[in-house]
Structure formats: C-alpha cells, structure tokens
Amino acid sequence: MLYFILSPAKKLAALSNCPQMALETPALMTQAAQLVEKMRTFAPHELACLMGISDKLSLLNVERFAEWNNDLSHAAAAVYLFNGDAYDGLSVRTMPEKSITYLQNYLGILSGLYGLLKPLDGIYPHRLEMGTKLQPSLYAFWGDTITALLQKRMNAANATHLINLASNEYFSAVRPENLAQPVITPQFKQYKNGKYTTVSLYAKQARGKMVRFAAENNIQHADELKNFNDGGYKYCESLSDNQAWVFVR
User: Fold this and answer.
1) Does residue 30 belong to any structural domain of this protein?
2) Within a domain: residue 242?
3) How far, rounded to the nearest angstrom, does the alpha carbon of residue 208 sit from its chain's CA centroid?
4) Over the stretch 87-123, which tens digit does the pLDDT of each residue have?
C-alpha cells in the first residue's frame, strides 16, 4: 500500500455546508490546545502582522481562536472543511463511500495547528500556517512529533512508500530521514514557452486529483501511480528520478 500526504487549505467551507457524520478526534489534540492558548495571547493587530493578513481576517481568526474547543459536536471533517485548490481537485463530495474509506486509511493532512490529521478528524475553522513566524517556530514546536505519528500510521497501513503531495512549507515539518519508507514527490508541469514549468494553481489541483485517482482505483503500488492521466497529465520518465516523479501536459 501507499500513504499520501497533503497540505491543508487557507480557504475553508462553511461549517453548515459540511456533511454531518461521525468524527474522529485528532491524535495531537493536546498539542493543538497548547497552540490555541498561545494564539489567544495575540491582539488583532499583532495577529495581522504575524500572519501578514488584513485587519478583517485577523479579527475573524481572533474570534476563531477564542471560540475553539475540543468538543467536536459542532466541528466538521477536515477533508470537507478544507476548500482550496488541491481539495477542488480531490472533490471529495462526489466520491463514493469506499473511496472515502481509502482516504481515511491512506491519507494524512499536515496542519500547523493539528500536526497531522486524518480526513475524518473533526476540526474547527482556523488559520495557522506552518511557516508562521512564531517564536519558537511551529517546526520547532512539532519537532519529531509529526514524523513519529506519520511513521506509526504508515506502519499500520503496511505502506511501502510515502507519496508527498504537500507543499514545501508543510513537508518541511516532516523529517524524511527518520522514516523507514522512501518518499516519492510527484511534480506537475505545463509546457510553456519552449519548456516545462510548474504553474502553482494547476499543480495544486493535480495533487488533489492524484489522491482521488488513487482512492477511486484502489491504488496499492507506487508504479500504478504512473498511470495517472487526469487533466491530460502523463508520466515523463526522462524528467523523473527515484524521488521526484514528473507528470507533464
């Protein structure tokens, strides 16, 4: 089997638009609560400066941190709450139940606040990017914790490879040298002006599409991912190596 990781998303769905379902408790909830307490010490203007966001957004997130709690009765599943480009590609709301089960078993979502989430973990709307310049940094806060949990989940899934579909910002919280499994990082490139280049929007969407492809086709072996062709992509052996698999269109 394979284990996939994605980044979270800044853009969130409304809680009222997320389906009601049984939710799991995030494994690192204790650490998340510690971070929330820290974030509650920032005034709106301080949060705006820290995160590089508008006054309106800073007020919204001050309210979110104030209201945050570990009672999941009004929370939403992470994979439904996140609503950015990769999640547009994943399009989880149109997936059959067996594919959702695949996601729950073989997908992890990295998070600045929660560390590492399962898709059906219950969470509340928040914004805390992994690269936020806290002192100490979130990378220091999480240390080996995310990697240890990721290893535990890969072992439980009998995973032979980690498929890294997260951004550099989030994957930097993982210590791949401490993982037993090799890491493959798919890259998605467009042919433009005589060369292949990465277009951020399309690359993010393709990351979600690849996870969907794996879930819908019950992908179990790394080489099967080379058949990914959603959106016109195809695997390019000449541009790829053991760690970076390049898909072009």
Assistant:
1) no
2) yes
3) 10
4) 999 999 999 999 999 999 999 999 999 999 999 999 9
Local structure of residue 203 (DSSP, 8 states): H
pLDDT, average across residues 58-74: 95
* Count of domains for the chain: 1
Q: What is the pLDDT of residue 224?
A: 98
Choose among 103, 122, 115: nearest CA to 139.
115
Return the biggest CA–CA distance within the chain.
54
Residue 41's Cβ-count burial label (10 Å; 0-12, 13-18, 19+) is: exposed
Closest CA to 21 of 114, 124, 120: 120
Q: Note the pLDDT tens digit of each residue in 197-229.
A: 999 999 999 999 999 999 999 999 999 999 999
Angle made by CA atoms 131, 92, 35, in degrees to the nearest 5: 30
Q: What does the block give as tokens for 131? A: 């690269």
How many CA atoms lie less than 13 Å away from 130 in the CB half-sphere?
24
175 with 63: CB under 8 angstroms? no
Q: What is the CA radius of gyration of the chain?
A: 18
Query: pLDDT averaged over the chain?
Result: 97
Give the whole-angstrom CA distance, residue 222 versus residue 6: 17
Q: How many CB atoms lie within 10 A of CB 196?
A: 15
Residue 33 lies in a domain: no
Domain that holds residue 154: 2-25+70-122+133-248
Strand-pairing partners, residue 110, are 116
In a domain, 104, yes or no: yes
